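Weekly sync, protein design subgroup
Attendees: M.S., D.O., the rotation student, P.L. (late)

Item 1: inverse folding check
M.S. brought a backbone from last month's batch and wanted to see whether the design step gives back something sensible before we order anything. D.O. pointed out we never logged the input encoding, so this time it goes straight into the notes. Structure tokens as presented (161 positions):
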């Protein structure tokens, strides 16, 4: 099963700002600690740098479904580092290994939605609880880094057997 890296996203630590949305970048250098230059408050502070949560991926399929339901979500809005096209959401599960550019990633667990999504301009406090409920089971997937390296937009991404 093969797909494509549709978008890469990163956001440096900016005091007083939430980590959402993440901005599109052309290339990411990824180590066991995560994407270089990207700050993830949850991973850094709450998860104590857990390497099983180094990278967050989401499928274009999920984003398209949210748009069809009326949410103005775009790649990077949910904090994902890698937006994946061409691999079905149903293929994602813990233990799945993906090769993207020089990277080898292993999916570790689903990402649970949190109230940080309230900071998105189309959500806010009023619609926040509804959006969080909508995201249950659709917030993306955490992965650990088995092989560090760089990845670029447009790179093939394949399921490793």
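Designed sequence read out in the meeting:
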């Amino acid at each position: 099963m093969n797909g494509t890296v549709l978008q890469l996203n990163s956001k440096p630590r900016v005091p007083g700002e939430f980590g959402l949305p993440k901005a599109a970048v052309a290339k990411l250098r990824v180590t066991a600690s995560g994407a270089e230059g990207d700050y993830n408050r949850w991973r850094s502070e709450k998860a104590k740098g857990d390497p099983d949560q180094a990278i967050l991926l989401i499928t274009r399929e999920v984003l398209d479904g949210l748009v069809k339901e009326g949410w103005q979500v775009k790649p990077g809005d949910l904090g994902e580092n890698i937006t994946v096209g061409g691999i079905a959401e149903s293929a994602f599960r813990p233990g799945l290994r993906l090769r993207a550019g020089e990277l080898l990633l292993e999916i570790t667990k689903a990402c649970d939605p949190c109230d940080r999504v309230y900071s998105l301009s189309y959500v806010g406090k009023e619609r926040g609880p509804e959006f969080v409920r909508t995201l249950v089971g659709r917030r993306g997937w955490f992965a650990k880094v088995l092989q560090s390296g760089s990845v670029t937009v447009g790179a093939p991404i394949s399921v490793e057997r």
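Discussion: Helices lie at 41-46, 60-68, 124-135. The radius of gyration is 14 Å.
Action: P.L. to compare against the previous round before Friday.
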